[in-house]
Every structure is written in C-alpha cells, then in structure tokens.
C-alpha cells in the first residue's frame, strides 16, 4: 500500500512540475512576444501615444470619414494590446516634435496638415498631387521616378511608413498611413496589424517606407492589399522628374 501511495505521490508531483513548466514556458513566450511588439511600436507598458486624425476634405472641421474611424479603431486595438494609452488629437492641433511619444498619423496631406509636414520633412522623395480638379493625375503618387495613379475603387495606393526621424533606434517612431482615399488608410492600418511581427523581424527598430496597393476596394473593401515595393531609399531622397506611370490594365 505504501508503495502504491508513493507512486501516486510521485506521479502527482511530476504532473504538477510539468504543468508549472508548461505555464512558465507559455508565459515566457507571451512576454517575449509582447516585448517585441512594444519595441516595434515604441509603446512600453503605460506609455502615451498620439493618434493624429485628419478631417473630411469636403466637410466641416473635425468631421472624420467612416473609413478613417475604422483605421483609428484598428490602431487603438494595437495600442491597447501593448498596454499603452492613446491621445486623440486633430491634425491642426498637433504642434509638437517627434521622438518623445509614438505617433500614428492618418490621412493624406490635403486633409491632414501634420501629414503634409511629415511628408515634407521626412519623405521628400514622395510627392502627392493634391490638385482638387479632376484629371488622370489627381491624387497620384510620385516616388522616385515612378508615378502611381489611382483608379477609384479598382486600383489605389497607400504609403505605410515607420520613421524615427534620424534620431536612432531609441526614439519613439512615427507611423504614417497616407493613402489616396480614406479606405486605403484603413487598409494600411489593417496590413500593419496583420504583418507587424514579420515587419519587426525584417526591420527591427529601423525606419521603413512601404508602398501598398489596394485592389478592387469597391468589391473587397480594405481587405485585399498587395505590397508593391519597399521604397524607403527613394522616399527619403529628393524626387527627380517622373518617368513612368502605373495604372491598372484595362
């Protein structure tokens, strides 16, 4: 009887140790994954961040488009997952530098002054046609020698960037979501939420600028997104005269 009891006790202890080790391993992996996520977004526990919102170019001040609201919700979930806090401010009230708090800036330069300032200072190689008059180049991107025209609802482009403004890896990053239409801003935030682990492995704490293409948004919304190119180098250099235009095949 004593032998049986001893075996039962030993088995129970072994099971307890196995459970404890499994719990410790899962906790360790979860914490390591969280730390990597926090480092990539520049969002340590209980830190503060900024959500800089644009406005509907055709509406009154403080009016945010439906798709940009969805983009902000995507970003808010990421911030919450990191255990950080977000302050929502309008583009024309964000009068401060960068590097102290992580910033998420949403919207094109025509509706977001903060975005226009970031593009001018940090991405001189990206030019965006903000002419309100209809035409084939309305809203077009020029990145280096390449020009990317949009066909609303069919082929649209968005720039997704993580930048540290040359302040080193310890500076809090600025994330830019600069699209040709509001739905492309949402597509870029969704792409970041889905692929941030891969982007973290590839770029670490370095800056990057990606050009994304949103395919057939009139049917698929912001869900079908293709990576066109890593345009970091071209975006950070002064743009030359355009040579090539990219449009969807007819």
From TrEMBL:
TM spans (from-to): 6-25
Keyword annotations: Membrane, Transmembrane, Transmembrane helix
Protein name in UniProt: Secreted protein
